[in-house]
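Morning!

This is the sequence you dropped in the shared folder:
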Amino acid sequence: MKTLIAGVLLVLSTGLLATSAAFAAGPKADLEQVKIDLHDQAGLQRGAKYYINYCMGCHSVKFSRYNRVALDLGLTEEQVAENFIFTRAKGEKTKIGDLMTNGMSAEDSERWFGVTPPDLSLVGRSRGGDWIYSFLKAFYVDPARPLGVNNTVFANAGMPHVLWELQGWQEMATKDDGEGGTEKTLTLAQPGSASPEEYDQIITDITNFLVYVGEPARLHRTTIGWWVLLFLSIFAVLAYLLKKEYWKDVH
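The structure's back. Tokens below.
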């Protein structure tokens, strides 16, 4: 029995090491860091606005409801209904309590793009804020690609640069790094309607919104946690005093 258990543990550990090595060997882009502030309500509102207008036509966030987003972001249901909801279900406008899905069917999207664009409800948890932020900054012109663009964070991504009007067009520049290799950098060849600083703020807001969508409870969890710690501290003092009172004559 001991030999059998040892054999099972050896197989499991070998498999885990192999999996870890496979992940470690995979390509990994250098990510830029972004400051996530889920208590920046104005930033979350802006991020929701940009996401609805530029991203949700293809990428739904079907694990969220419009009324929950309204509540968490400090918006009225009337504001959300008027500015966020542009889809219909069975001929009627989508209701405020419905899930945040888009009007594009999986069959149509696969026929048009070759693949169904993924739902982004959990991308903030699976990829992280740094990945989203870096991805949205990393599009560049690539005539060899079907849609004319590529991405340094997610190579050969099958999507257009939907924020090109804001950012403009970047080009890939290469130069000798002095060690026999090449160094690749992105340069802004054609500016967009937003300055680089403004564009950074826009994608920071979008990233903030997607991180919130991935775990809405995170908005309140930290605050509740401090109250719980305060309660436990007060309870610990009372429990200690009660213990002293009960045991003061037992000696």
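Headline: The chain has one domain: 29-243.

More detail when I'm at my desk.
O.
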